[in-house]
Amino acid sequence: MSVSRHFVLAAGGTGGHMIPAFALASELLARGHRVALVTDERGRAIPGVPDGLDVHVLPAGRMQGGVFARVRALFAIWKGRGLALSLLREFGPSAVVGFGGYPALPTLLAARAARVPAVIHEQNAVLGRVNRFLAKKAAAIATAYARVERMPEGCADKVHLIGNPVRAEVLTLRDRPYPAFTANGLLRVLVTGGSQGAAILSKVVPDGLALLPESIRHRLQVTQQCRAADIEAVRDAYKRHEIPAELGTYFEDMAERLADAHLFIGRAGASTIAELTAVGRPAILIPLPIATDDHQAANARDMADAGGARSIRQDKFTPDELARQIEAMAADPEALGNAAHMAWNCGRPDAAKDLADLVESFGGAPLMDVIRMGRGAAMEAGTRTAGAAA
Ligand SMILES: CC(=O)N[C@H]1[C@@H](OP(=O)(O)OP(=O)(O)OC[C@H]2O[C@@H](n3ccc(=O)[nH]c3=O)[C@H](O)[C@@H]2O)O[C@H](CO)[C@@H](O)[C@@H]1O
């Protein structure tokens, strides 16, 4: 067994950043390390914090809006950096792992000031703004796709293709066969719009499913995540179309929902795709058009090219188009099963383990040495070892 060390993870904002951080935390905790997660208020609200993870909430700012908003954001980032620095000094981590997004920024800046090696993880097929800003100084860059756009020059040597860590309960489904799908059996459809939900799915999906030929339509069973503002209208629409549907604003038991699903319809967020490919579920993806640098369209590309998904641009996503695509995929039970297999082939089930291995390679000082040498000497040793590993 490896020696217990301390690691700090920094993530916030949406489930897309938090869920890979939870998965890495679980793996590191299972290896006997102590792990602290630094997040923001929105991140703290995402369910699924693993037992034993210390959670710290820091102020964070987004560099958006007018001059006043940006100045306020800068102050919040600076204040967060100071608080993160105190935490790092007290906790003595071997490495800090950032999952992108503005909530991670103060902690990564503090890591630089404290000379703790920083590993950044990019979930998307385009490097995000904050990761781009941090990439050159990072000790390692973990990516989820073989091709990641907007990677700064000179970083290639420290890029490690890892994948997106998914939750353990999702990963256990990888060895289960695709649920039986026959010409007369149920067609179970799962619809989600990422962790925040997506209004366009509420508008288009019920009407699109209603347009399917009766031979498919009467076999439908839908589970759909909706924004709170849309849920009653969606309920009415399914009732009107006489399609059985279970609705919710956020399903905490996503693994069970995925296990049952024959077909997924939804956004192309990084964790959504990582889960679909871990489990092997065919999908119709509608990338969020306003995602920075169109990263959701880039995320969908590999799965679509492999034959595991169809990607529809939002401006082409109408009830007619959705019905046409579902018919093409589900008219033949074998075709849907094949697409499921193509999706499965795109999975990277070892992502949490591989990311934990990478993070552990930044040896730092073992906990016993921290106790023996005192904090200052240990941090110096940590910087030296990490430099050698990088
Ligand atoms: C709107 C937005 O900016 N989205 C971005 C955000 O992810 P966002 O959180 O929107 O989307 P992701 O697909 O990455 O993650 C969603 C996660 O929430 C879970 N879930 C969803 C619905 C539900 O009812 N229950 C549930 O558990 C999913 O299973 C998944 O694990 O960060 C991702 C990673 O940087 C990006 O790829 C997305 O483009």
TrEMBL record:
Catalytic activity, EC? 2.4.1.227
Q: In which pathway does it act?
A: Cell wall biogenesis; peptidoglycan biosynthesis
Q: Which residues form the Glycosyl transferase family 28 C-terminal domain?
A: 189-354
Which UniProt keywords are given for this protein, alphabetically ordered?
Cell cycle, Cell division, Cell membrane, Cell shape, Cell wall biogenesis/degradation, Glycosyltransferase, Membrane, Peptidoglycan synthesis, Transferase
UniProt binding sites for UDP-N-acetyl-alpha-D-glucosamine: T14, G15, G16, N124, R167, S195, Q296
The superkingdom listed in its UniProt entry is Bacteria
Q: What is its main location?
A: membrane
GO molecular function, a single term: undecaprenyldiphospho-muramoylpentapeptide beta-N-acetylglucosaminyltransferase activity
Question: GO biological process annotations for this chain's record?
Answer: carbohydrate metabolic process; cell division; cell wall organization; peptidoglycan biosynthetic process; regulation of cell shape
Pfam families, per this entry? Glyco_tran_28_C, Glyco_transf_28
Q: Cellular component per GO?
A: plasma membrane
**Localization (cell):** Cell membrane
Which reactions are catalysed by this chain?
Answer: di-trans,octa-cis-undecaprenyl diphospho-N-acetyl-alpha-D-muramoyl-L-alanyl-D-glutamyl-meso-2,6-diaminopimeloyl-D-alanyl-D-alanine + UDP-N-acetyl-alpha-D-glucosamine = di-trans,octa-cis-undecaprenyl diphospho-[N-acetyl-alpha-D-glucosaminyl-(1->4)]-N-acetyl-alpha-D-muramoyl-L-alanyl-D-glutamyl-meso-2,6-diaminopimeloyl-D-alanyl-D-alanine + UDP + H(+)
Membrane topology term = Peripheral membrane protein
Q: Which InterPro entries match?
A: GlcNAc_MurG, Glyco_trans_28_C, GlycoTrans_28_N
Top-level EC class as recorded in UniProt? transferase
Q: Which positions fall inside the Glycosyltransferase family 28 N-terminal domain? A: 7-142
Alphabetized NCBIfam families for the sequence: murG
- Give the record's family classification: Belongs to the glycosyltransferase 28 family. MurG subfamily.
> What is the protein's known function?
Cell wall formation. Catalyzes the transfer of a GlcNAc subunit on undecaprenyl-pyrophosphoryl-MurNAc-pentapeptide (lipid intermediate I) to form undecaprenyl-pyrophosphoryl-MurNAc-(pentapeptide)GlcNAc (lipid intermediate II).
Listed name of the protein: UDP-N-acetylglucosamine--N-acetylmuramyl-(pentapeptide) pyrophosphoryl-undecaprenol N-acetylglucosamine transferase
Organism name: Croceicoccus ponticola
